[in-house]
Amino acid sequence: MSLIFEKEIQVTEKHIDGNNHVNNVQYVHWVEEIAGEHWDFVKHKTDFPKDIWMLLDHHIQYKKQVYLGDIIKIKTYPKPPEGIRQPRKVEFYCNDELVVDSLTLWVFVDKETKRVKRLESDWLDKL
Q1: In this model, does residue 1 exceed pLDDT 50?
Q2: Helix count (H) and strand count (E) of the chain?
Q3: For the domain that residue 34 is a member of, what is the CATH number?
C-alpha cells in the first residue's frame, strides 16, 4: 500500500465564499473526500474491504488563503494507530507551500454489525 495518496484540484467558483477565497467548509469536505478515495484505492488489498471508516474528530489549521483558479495539491496518509483510533494527516499545498494542515481521527466500523472494529497495531505494515 502506498501510505501517501495525492490528488490535485483546481479551485472553481463553487469552492469560493463571499471573501473571494476557498471556503473553510470546503476543506472539511475535501478532507473527508480524499480519505474515502484513499480507502477505496487500497481496501481490496486488506482482509476487510467491505468495512468503513467513520470520522471522530478533526482539526484544521488554515495558514494561507487560496483563490479562484489556483491548483491545490492534496496529500494524505495514515499515521500509526492509537488504540482503536486511526490518525490521518491531510495537507493542502498551493505552489508548493503548505496552506492548510489537518489531523483527523477515525475509527474502523464493521459494515454489517455497525460496531467499532479494532485493527492490529501493525495493520498498515501488512499492506
Answers
A1: no
A2: 1, 5
A3: 3.10.129.10
